[in-house]
């Protein structure tokens, strides 16, 4: 549920009213099939030809998707990380979270089938090309941060914004809170720490011991919390102008941003009422 707390350091920033879809399997262009003992020509032709990584997916989801797309034993892609020489920034400390760029990747190139290593490398290379360009690098510098920090903010924006039009406003909320020395208090970081996606964050959730607990910890989380796309990156480096400190999506298409705590609490009350109406009634 959403918690009403007094101003100052105990401000609670409720999340947008939208649950991010966390798919359990790979998203592929083509038809995904299990690997049979004997593969016929027809079955070979029906295998997926490319892997689609959606915006906002976490690295853990991407590893599972690669395993399924390449018909590898579960956990293979994640286990291979330690042996890879991915071109990651120093701040990442070897963790590719946020740098597995969301795009469509072919599963075969030049007659050669891709491996989990080559796919991950391609994703990181794509991210580096996107993030090292003048618009992103200059935007990060303009906002007194490095590119890795910009990617981290963009990942929060990707997880929190209900629509593309909301992204620049969500980014401004992040900047305003950082500049005022307020904890971000973003439910998306709690969800990342708990490896889940939900609209309801309890008071117990906000007390978990995790560097991703932005209710308890100041500043940005230590890494991105997912793979941001182009729009989220633009928002993170060119946030909208505004004094907002809070936002909540009361219902689809109705995200409300405000700098007034009392107004925010009224918006949260409306959101909770909408959620209650939408909840299925228990059967007798």
Structural description of this entry:
The protein is mainly alpha-helical. It folds into two domains: 8-16 and 133-278, no CATH class; 27-131, no CATH class. Helices cover 38% and strands 8% of the residues. The chain is built from ten helices and seven strands. The protein has helices spanning 41-45, 59-69, 76-79, 116-131, 134-142, 147-160, 164-179, 187-194, 230-237, 261-278; strands at residues 27-29, 50-52, 104-106, 108-109, 112-113, 246-251, 254-258. Strands 1-2-3 form a three-stranded antiparallel beta sheet, covered by helices on one side. Strands 4-5 form a two-stranded antiparallel ribbon. Strand 6 (246-251) and strand 7 (254-258) form a beta hairpin. Helix 5 runs parallel beside helix 9 (230-237), helix 6 (147-160) packs across helix 7 and helix 6 (147-160) packs across helix 9 (230-237). The longest helix has 18 residues, at 261-278. It is globular. The model is unreliable at 1-39 (pLDDT under 50).
Brief digest:
By secondary structure, this protein is mostly helical.
Strand order of the largest sheet: 1-2-3
SS summary, helix count: 10
Q: Work out the radius of gyration.
A: 20 Å
- Describe the sheet with the most strands: 3 strands, antiparallel
Write down how many β-strands occur, each being a DSSP E stretch of 2 or more residues: 7
Structural class based on helices, strands and sheet pairing = mainly alpha
Give the N-to-C terminal Cα separation. Answer: 24 Å
**Low-confidence blocks of residues:** 1-39
Overall tally of domains: 2
Order of helices and strands: EHEHHEEEHHHHHHEEH
Strand portion, in percent? 5-15%
């Amino acid at each position: 549920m959403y918690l009403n707390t007094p101003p100052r350091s105990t401000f609670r920033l409720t999340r947008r009213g939208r649950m991010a879809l966390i798919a359990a399997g790979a998203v592929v262009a083509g038809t995904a099939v299990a690997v049979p003992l004997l593969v016929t020509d027809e079955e070979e032709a029906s295998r997926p030809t490319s892997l689609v990584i959606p915006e906002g997916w976490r690295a853990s989801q991407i590893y599972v998707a690669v395993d399924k797309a390449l018909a590898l034993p579960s956990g293979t892609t994640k286990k291979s990380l330690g042996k890879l020489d991915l071109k990651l920034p120093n701040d990442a400390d070897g963790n590719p979270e946020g740098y597995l760029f969301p795009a469509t990747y072919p599963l075969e190139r030049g007659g050669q089938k891709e491996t989990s290593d080559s796919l991950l490398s391609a994703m990181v290379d794509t991210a580096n090309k996107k993030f090292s360009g003048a618009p992103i690098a200059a935007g990060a510098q303009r906002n007194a941060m490095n590119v890795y920090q910009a990617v981290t903010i963009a990942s929060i924006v990707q997880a929190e914004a209900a629509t593309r039009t909301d992204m620049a406003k969500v980014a401004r909320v992040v900047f305003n809170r950082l500049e005022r020395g307020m904890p971000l208090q973003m439910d998306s970081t709690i969800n990342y720490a708990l490896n889940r996606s939900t609209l309801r964050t309890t008071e117990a959730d906000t007390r978990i011991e995790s560097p991703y607990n932005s209710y308890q910890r100041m500043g940005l989380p230590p890494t991105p919390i997912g793979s941001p796309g182009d729009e989220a990156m633009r928002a993170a480096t060119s946030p909208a102008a505004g004094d907002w400190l809070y936002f909540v999506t009361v219902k689809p298409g109705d995200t409300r941003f405000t700098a007034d705590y009392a107004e925010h609490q009224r918006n949260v009350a409306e959101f909770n009422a909408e959620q209650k109406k939408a909840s299925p009634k228990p059967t007798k």
